[in-house]
Specification:
- With 60 residues, the chain is an alpha+beta fold.
- 18% of the residues lie in helices and 23% in strands.
- It has one helix and two strands.
- Strands 1-2 form a two-stranded antiparallel ribbon.
- A hairpin with a 2-residue loop joins β1 and β2.
- It is elongated.
Length: 60
């Protein structure tokens, strides 16, 4: 298998998301979350944790 050589000018794209705003997505009407470098989503079942992650995935 041939592996293409990378140029030394290739750079990884690093994104730091510091705020998430969700409006009208699934069960979330209006939500704003400020994130730290490491953030945990903790809550009971059916509280929207997965919906937040799906919205973020859709946006990125």
């Amino acid at each position: 298998m041939d592996v293409p050589e990378t140029d030394s000018t290739d750079q990884a794209l690093n994104i730091l998301v510091d705020t998430i705003r969700i409006f009208g997505f699934r069960g979330i009407k209006n939500l704003e979350i400020t994130l730290e470098q490491k953030t945990l989503l903790i809550g009971p079942n059916n509280s929207g944790k997965t919906t937040v992650l799906k919205a973020l995935n859709l946006a990125l």
